[in-house]
């Protein structure tokens, strides 16, 4: 499984692996319980994680880069279990994990999702994936 295969689905918690697409929806596998299901395009919106960006005070930052910074700052946060945190604690912890975020435009619900998603990716060891950056070939003439 690779990061580019991961999707979030509106109305459904957690993360999913996109297995196949159809004209009327997608077939996905839930990363928590490993169940496979069909998700109708009429009812749900499927969003690849690699297309998500997070607001900062300057430019938007790709979600992958946010996860990498969260990985670097994880030891500075005592508790990563958002189910046991109130809104102020989530905001405080997220500010430590990703200090560049725009506090006015990144909502607590979004912070909560990102922290949960980070936990899933960490558990599945998908945070160490190295992305290949295509470099233009240079030729010496």
Helical stretch tally: 3
Order of strands side by side in the largest beta sheet? 4-3-2-1-5
Percent helix, as a range, is 25-40%
Share of residues in strands? 15-25%
CATH architecture of the largest domain: Orthogonal Bundle
Characterize the main sheet: 5 strands, antiparallel
Number of domains: 2
Give an overview in words.
The structure is a single chain. With about 140 residues, this protein is an alpha+beta fold. It has two domains: about 5-50; about 55-125, Arc Repressor Mutant, subunit A (Orthogonal Bundle), CATH 1.10.10. Helix content is about 25%, strand content about 25%. The protein has three helices and seven strands; from the N terminus they run E-E-E-E-E-E-E-H-H-H. It has helices at about 65-75, 85-95, 110-125; strands at about 5-10, 10-20, 25-30, 35-40, 45-50, 55, 60. The strands form two sheets. The chain has a five-stranded antiparallel beta sheet. Helix 2 packs across helix 3. The chain is globular. It starts with 5 loop residues before the first strand and ends in an 18-residue tail after the last helix. Mean pLDDT is about 85; it is low at about 130-135.
Furnish the topology, listing elements before pairings.
Layout: E1 6-9, E2 12-22, E3 25-30, E4 36-40, E5 46-48, E6 53-54, E7 61-62, H1 63-73, H2 87-97, H3 108-123
Antiparallel strand pairs: 1-2, 1-5, 2-3, 3-4, 6-7
Helix pairs in contact: 2-3
